[in-house]
Amino acid sequence: MSRIGRLPIDIPSGVTVTVSGQDVAVKGPKGELALTVARPIEVAVEENQVLVTRPDDERESRALHGLTRTLINNNIIGVTQGYTKGLEVVGTGYRVAQKGTAVEFALGFSHPVLVEAPEGITLTVEGNNKVTVAGISKQAVGEAAANIRKIRKPEPYKGKGVRYAGEVVRRKAGKSGK
Fold it and tell me: Residue 7: CA atoms inside 13 Å, Cβ hemisphere, count?
């Protein structure tokens, strides 16, 4: 039995979970998220708890059991607390500025890079070198942060670029002088 999959998920007050066939909808104070569960896995709501079960011990069923439970739990956390991911811009002359709902990056290119916030995601700028990506979907927040980081990844010699908050960039030694 999956150690994660067999754990029941407590439903906090203010959150409703509805299951219809393979579709699970989670509605909370911050919004609404939906998930389609893969075929052999079954989801049931009993007494303010969500239970995820599998019918057999096939390899695919075992793999999907814990995954499904975690995805439903992530949706419940998302509609109650939400998710945030921090980004830092490091480098001389590298800046970030808020332009309405979009964010403008100056990252050493010949032009500023304008990033529009995807649907369901909010981008906020703190100072001139910190960006916070926030939303209710863990997957969407992570993907938006990764796409912003992809504009200029931190390079290993000077460490310049866009990095996650708290990310440690391994530095390389440069050319050795004579």
Answer: 12
Nearest to 153, CA basis, from 84, 90, 103: 90
Cβ burial 10-28 (10 Å sphere, 16+ → b, else e): ebeeebebeeeeeebebbb
- On whether the pTM is more than 0.70, the answer is yes
CA–CA separation, 13 vs 31, rounded Å?
Answer: 14
Which long-range contacts (C-beta less than 8 Å, at least 24 apart) are formed by 112-121? 113/151, 115/147, 115/148, 115/151, 117/144, 118/144, 120/31
* Model pLDDT for residues 151-168, shown as the tens digit of each residue: 999 999 999 999 999 999
